[in-house]
Prior knowledge:
By secondary structure, this protein is α+β, with helices and mostly antiparallel strands. It has one domain (about 5-65). It is built from 1 helix and 3 strands; from the N terminus they run H-E-E-E. It has one helix at about 5-15, and strands at about 20-25, 40-50, 55-65. Strands 1-2-3 form a 3-stranded antiparallel β-sheet, with no helix packed on it. A hairpin with a 5-residue loop joins strand 2 and strand 3 (about 55-65). It is elongated.
Amino acid sequence: MTNDYTDNILGSISTYHEHIVILDIEHTCTEDGSIPREERETIEICAVIVDTKSLKVIDQYSALI
Length: 65
């Protein structure tokens, strides 16, 4: 089974870009949602550089704030 949306996006990106950066930003939260959105704080920032042809991770970064 193929995902046409994903295939089309990846094909388009790899045509114009050799690498992409994917960011992941973690923030404080609770299971019960007791911390309001506007009071959440960033606690970690992560990133990976991905080769668009092979989809392999080239480099990665992670920092606790």
